[in-house]
Amino acid sequence: MDYLWVLVAFLCGFVVKQLGMPPLVGYLLAGFGLHAMGVQPVGSLQALADLGITLMLFTIGLKLNIRALMQKEVWLTSVLHTGVWVVLLAGVLLLAAWLGLSHYFDIPLTAALLVAFALSFSSTVCVVKMLEEASELKTRHGKIAVGILVIQDILAVVFLVASTGKTPSLWAFGLFGLFLIKPLLHRLVSQAGHGELLPLLGFFLALGGSELFTLVNMKGDLGALLVGMLLASHAKSAELYKVLMNFKDLFLIGFFLSIGFTALPSLDMALTALLLTVLLLVKFVLFFALLARFSVSGRSSYLSALALTNYSEFGLIVASLSVNRGWLSEDWLVIIALVMSLSFILSSFIYRRAHHIYALRKDSINRFERAGAHQGFERPKEATVLILGMGRVGKGAYCALEREYGSRVWGVESDAERVAALKAEGFNVVVGDSDDMEFWQKVSTQGIRLVMLALPSQTEMRSTLEMLKLAGYQGKVAAVARYEDERAELLHLGVDVAFNYYSEVGAGFAAESRHLLTGSEPLDVAHQV
């Protein structure tokens, strides 16, 4: 049975990937398909799903700055959105019942409020997955979206405490001691090296944080998140994130499959779910309006709101709890599972075109932002070479070219904190998203002879190339690819030179070391022989 669900998950994920959609859409379909075939989920499936979510929250913590949660556009948007949405959706449900659109809407006010609350949350799994694929967790809109998700998680804890009557034990105050052992945690990471101990330590810390919170009657996932946040400032946090990423993605497949095993819908349930899916537009407008109201730029408001426009897996927890207590019928558990799955599919599909849509509609989007909210761009002065992405590869390319071209070499980086650190080291670097059409219009491509793509995501590189074409860039483009098929795709998209990092790093290593052979006596003897 284990092999069957792995096989079906792979086939469905593979097929939807060929259609240009994220594999997670295939995993959702695989879960419903297996359920329809009468397959029973194996006991390990839910364990894998839970482990995937715990690792995901831990890795979010590794990239999270706690100061970002204190910004009003994060916490106030999250709280206001939840309150306004619950009132609006409850009213819509009662109106739908009065109009006779579906007998499932014929529920008392308290049940309508519960359904509205269950659908107020955005999916942490779905949002983080989309942002990771686009390498946007460190961007302005990525940080806002993740911050809102964290505040929503805190609201979830408050609901669970209020609805179950389970209050945190007195021992919960001892959790503040985690901040006292932060130096010990940092030392553990430093001493773990770079081998198999590092991911094992990551598992230990993620699961340990979850278990600690669970023991004191608190949401375990918050524990994994908090421990990750304690390690965010460590120099090896990025390395730990990378080694855990593949494990996390693999285990999350169990989560997407488990959704399909929740229940199978009838036609009436499917139509009800479809009506609720249409209301995602209201969710988007509400997020966008609140973020714009708090002086977030039009672009960041639009991208954050679009990423958050989905329904959360937490809705299933609320529905399940409500069913067990007799507040909702079991049918609503099926409807919420279905509407959540539909929202995942729509959100993943639309967000892949988010930057293209913004490039075409930016004037319409930006007219809703408040005065002074629009982000200005620092222009690279007299730039001949632009390096997009100032990670290890981009920074290395910058240092190599600066020796010859000096101040005509500039870097572009979306992470404002990294830009500040690089400027302190003397680098010519500006803040900007390479897949932002407005950035290219403000910067102007005149005088730039070479653009180098040192971006971590193939998706981001595709989007950047599209923006360069729309901006009318006429110069040369070079890119770094991780794999040969990605290199071939970049060349097909118009890149002049695509450097395969893994295959050609050996050639570069040899070129840098060749001078050491000059006058090498043992080698000369060998040649004579």
UniProtKB/TrEMBL annotation:
InterPro entries: Cation/H_exchanger_TM (IPR006153), Na+/solute_symporter_sf (IPR038770), NAD(P)-bd_dom_sf (IPR036291), RCK_N (IPR003148). Its main location: membrane. Keywords: Antiport, Ion transport, Membrane, Transmembrane, Transmembrane helix, Transport. It holds the Pfam family Na_H_Exchanger. It is a multi-pass membrane protein. It is found in: Membrane. Residues 6-348 form the Cation/H+ exchanger transmembrane domain. The chain crosses the membrane at residues 42-62, 74-101, 107-131, 143-162, 168-185, 197-216, 250-267, 273-294, 332-351. Residues 385-500 form the RCK N-terminal domain. SUPFAM superfamilies: NAD(P)-binding Rossmann-fold domains. Belongs to the monovalent cation:proton antiporter 2 (CPA2) transporter (TC 2.A.37) family. PANTHER family: CATION_PROTON ANTIPORTER YBAL-RELATED, SODIUM/HYDROGEN EXCHANGER FAMILY/TRKA DOMAIN PROTEIN. This is Cation:proton antiporter.
